[in-house]
TrEMBL record:
Transmembrane segments: none annotated. This is Zinc-binding dehydrogenase. It comes from Actinomadura miaoliensis. Residues 9-306 form the Enoyl reductase (ER) domain. SUPFAM superfamilies: GroES-like, NAD(P)-binding Rossmann-fold domains. InterPro entries: ADH-like_N (IPR013154), ER (IPR020843), GroES-like_sf (IPR011032), NAD(P)-bd_dom_sf (IPR036291), Zn-ADH-like_protein (IPR051397).
Length: 312
């Protein structure tokens, strides 16, 4: 099969080449991939750390080429969205059926390919915060793929949403259109305490966001775009002054149970126009280097989609 393989001598560290066809396990379906969406983490860290010739990629949408041998999952011919630790950047992908969500017929599979990491991470993070109806939720790194989904889902869940971005002047109107009630340049600008935080940044921003939690509040550490550690000042974890019973939680998406139904639910909402995938770049996988460069240069705010074009 043709695939986008790691080749650090090529621009962006990737080139379209050939790789062996995947051999599905009994609980895996074989997917004919139509589109994949790029995530900052896999581009920034995956390409640099993977052996030459590796086929990476977490997110992919396409059509079931061959159903799983054990009878689980969707039938051949079904449009689907898939999640996995690798293998999305190829014409064919073998995927565990509990990581496959069905997609409404006729949906834009490019848009649907943005769902797995960004949409599911946002959804699972908000669930960990707990009931958010009528409560304040802060989303840091709100202009990224996960952040934009988190703003929309928190708004639709009835939260008062505070969106944090490095450039409120440039992105404030767009974030408000997604459902943000307030747009700030960082957690330090949040005057009224929040019940929950979906943090995509890490480092000093995570520390500052934790300080803004109300009693009983939860911060979900999802992203770590700063690449720096979290250094809490002495006293930050004291339980006095109404700041006790606060928590910091992390999770690993691929270890989460029940993802197939979440992927299908998110895909249906994107297909119906109830969630905006916020696509900021879209093109053939022949142009992968262009997308990678823009993503690493922080010039993309939203999702980048590569179309897997047969014979291209």
């Amino acid at each position: 099969m043709r695939a986008l393989i790691v080749d650090r001598s090529a621009p962006g560290g990737l080139r379209v080449g050939t790789a062996p066809d995947p051999v599905p396990a009994p609980n895996q379906a074989l997917i004919r991939v139509t589109a994949t969406s790029l995530n900052y983490g896999e581009v920034a860290f995956g390409i640099a750390g993977a052996p030459e010739g590796t086929v990476l990629g977490w997110d992919a949408a396409g059509i079931v080429e061959r159903a799983a041998a054990d009878g689980s999952g969707p039938a051949a011919g079904t449009p689907v969205v898939t999640l996995g630790a690798d293998g999305a950047w190829a014409e064919l992908r073998a995927v565990d059926t509990d990581l496959i969500g069905t997609v409404p017929a006729g949906a834009d599979l490019g848009a649907i390919s943005t769902v797995p990491v960004a949409g599911a991470s946002a959804l699972r993070a908000l669930r960990r915060i707990g009931p958010i109806l009528g409560r304040r939720v802060l989303v840091t790194g709100a202009t990224g793929g996960v952040g934009r989904y988190a703003v929309q889902l928190a708004h639709q869940g009835g939260a008062e949403v505070v969106a944090s971005t490095g450039d409120p002047a440039a992105h404030g109107d767009g974030l408000r259109a997604l459902g943000a009630d307030e747009v700030v340049s960082g957690p330090h600008e949040v005057a009224e305490r929040v019940y929950g935080v979906v943090d995509m940044v890490g480092g000093d921003q995570l520390v500052a966001a934790y300080e803004r939690l109300s009693e009983g509040g939860t911060l979900i550490a999802v992203g770590h775009s700063t690449g720096g550690g979290e250094n809490f000042p002495f006293g930050a974890l004291f339980g006095n002054e109404g700041r006790h019973d606060r928590s910091i939680v992390s999770f690993y998406l691929l270890d989460e149970p029940g993802l197939a139904s979440d992927l299908a639910w998110l895909a249906a909402r994107v297909a119906a126009g109830r969630l905006d995938p916020q696509i900021s770049w879209r093109g053939s996988w022949d142009r992968a280097a262009e997308a990678v460069e823009a993503l690493l240069g922080r010039r993309l705010h939203g999702k980048a989609i590569l179309e897997i074009e047969p014979g291209s």
